[in-house]
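User: My collaborator and I are trying to settle a disagreement about how two of our proteins should look. Neither of us wants to argue from intuition anymore, so we agreed to look at predicted structures for both before our next call. Could you fold the first one, then the second, and keep them clearly separated?

Assistant: That sounds like a sensible way to settle it. I'll keep them separate. The first protein:
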Amino acid sequence: MSHATASRPQQFISPLPVHGARDVRVCAHAMDVSDRVFVIEALRGLGVTFRHFFGNLGQLLIGRNIETVCYPEQKRPYTERFRAQHRLLKRDDGSPRCVACFMCATACPAYAIHIEAEEREGSTEKAPAVFEIDELRCVDCGLCVEACPCDAIRMDTGIHPAPSLTREATLLDKATLLSYSGLDDGTLPKTARTAERRKVER
């Protein structure tokens, strides 16, 4: 065993299950003496605090105003490229566009999407019997939107995922995802929206 391998902290897998999640293991690393004292991390955090404090104080001394936003009463406008909370688009009959091809779940690097397929009535296509997104796992990369061949999932709602006290509240089911509205009614394909945005930026 090399010295680098011997000094590496051992991984600890918690035996306690996480309620409301699938295939989640709570992991922690064994702390050495410097980690347990917390002096280094405390000084590092104080350094960030004092850097912002003296930076803002300097702005006031030279007569510049500090830009502040009274959130949540006052919010900054988001751009069209802002990756907000997901939504599922509907067909004319109200059913989801999703055909349960699992492309979004396959492309998701965080394994945040869970789909269970079923037969679509009156069609040879499939439909999602279960479509869930775990917002705590989601890293907002947008790969699910790019991977979907049916343009069934988008991240254009302009909604921040709301904070919650339980993990169950962060699991968005199919009905919740279908209830959200976005920047358009879904008739304009995402490729056309990208082309229009590039024209505006030019």
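The second protein, kept apart from the first:
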Amino acid sequence: MKELATHTGLGELLPTDGGISEEVLGQFAKAGVDIDAVTAQLQSEGAESFVKSWNDLKGVNSSKAAAFGKSTAPEAVS
């Protein structure tokens, strides 16, 4: 976390009211982008990515636990 803070400019926070997001999404819709399809795809890909990362972490934990002669890895997510 310290590395992120020292090497990354995070910029401004997103406004709590959504800012101009509705306007931007409207422009995408006018250009023919199916916003519902895009959001569904992003949700699905995000969930798949999380599950993969969790299972990768579980594998690392299992191998480290085995090196110490214990099995303390968390359950897999599916």
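Some points you might bring to the call about the second protein. The longest helix spans residues 35-67. The chain has three helices and no strands.
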